[in-house]
Amino acid sequence: MSQAATMPAPPPTRLPRHLAVIMDGNGRWAQRRNRPRTLGHRAGAKAVQVCVDYCLARGIGALTLFAFSSENWNRPEEEVGALMKLFLRMLDSEVGELQRRGVRLSFIGDRSGFPETIQTRMAQAEQHPPAQPCLALNIAVGYGGRWDITQACRSLAGDVAAGRLAPGDITETLLGERISLAGLPSPDLFIRTGGDLRISNFLLWQLAYTELWFTETLWPDLDDAVLDAAMAAFADRERRFGLTSAQVAGGAT
Ligand code: IPE
Ligand code: IPE
Ligand code: MG
């Protein structure tokens, strides 16, 4: 028997099944170059491609990107307008190619504030998903974690008012079924670029047991090396979900 045959196989690198990202730092990226913030957003759109390519190449099955928060509506009108234009341009130029590559696109968030054209394009992009998607790509736009929990509660309250559900029958599972991303495993890994150590009203419910990783890298500077560093940190974490280390290791309880 050859030596190679007797060697134990290297342990597979543990990758997240679902990666959630706060793409932050576009404005500072531009300001450091004495350019308008909107240029940073355009550069940030290219970094989205880097992140999507990375997930497709590594077989990460789900990616949720925070693109525009419910609070971002309060930014200067000019910046919000530029973001809307960029979003529309991205919808027009990228959706077809993403679908050809096996990406299933979904948008999460309150769409009501978006111009009609964008709402229509979002709905169109969600139609005709690939038969066998290799990546579920969720874009959070007009999204807030508090909005998400509120809309799930409103939906359950509707069932209660209609007599279909008793308040006492509401469980975490039932609420979880009404929350955005319900069909996917919870994010295993969260990444925030831009150096700030906060959640900024992203997936408040869904991140309950997600591993958090932060980097000073500004979003437009994202590259494979940054993502590799996040993956390496994730692979080293022990996820206990409230148990003891011994329990997780399958040893004594
Ligand atoms: C993230 O970058 C993109 C959006 C919130 C739309 P920012 O625009 O927040 O960039 P910084 O944090 O000001 O540098
Ligand atoms: C979070 O970034 C939202 C997005 C990246 C879309 P912000 O720049 O809005 O967050 P804060 O204001 O620094 O918390
Ligand atoms: Mg920011």
Automatic annotation (TrEMBL):
Its EC number is 2.5.1.31. Substrate binds at residues 25-29, 37, 41, 69-71, 73, 75, 192, 198-200. Its cofactor is Mg(2+). The keyword Metal-binding applies. The active site is at 24, 72 (proton acceptor). SUPFAM superfamilies: Undecaprenyl diphosphate synthase. Binds 2 magnesium ions per subunit. InterPro entries: UPP_synth-like (IPR001441), UPP_synth-like_CS (IPR018520), UPP_synth-like_sf (IPR036424). Mg(2+) binds at residues 24, 211. Keywords: Cell shape, Cell wall biogenesis/degradation, Magnesium, Metal-binding, Peptidoglycan synthesis, Transferase. It catalyses: 8 isopentenyl diphosphate + (2E,6E)-farnesyl diphosphate = di-trans,octa-cis-undecaprenyl diphosphate + 8 diphosphate. Coiled coil: none annotated. Pfam families: Prenyltransf. PROSITE patterns: UPP_SYNTHASE (PS01066). Catalyzes the sequential condensation of isopentenyl diphosphate (IPP) with (2E,6E)-farnesyl diphosphate (E,E-FPP) to yield (2Z,6Z,10Z,14Z,18Z,22Z,26Z,30Z,34E,38E)-undecaprenyl diphosphate (di-trans,octa-cis-UPP). UPP is the precursor of glycosyl carrier lipid in the biosynthesis of bacterial cell wall polysaccharide components such as peptidoglycan and lipopolysaccharide. Homodimer. Belongs to the UPP synthase family. This is Ditrans,polycis-undecaprenyl-diphosphate synthase ((2E,6E)-farnesyl-diphosphate specific). It comes from Arenimonas soli.
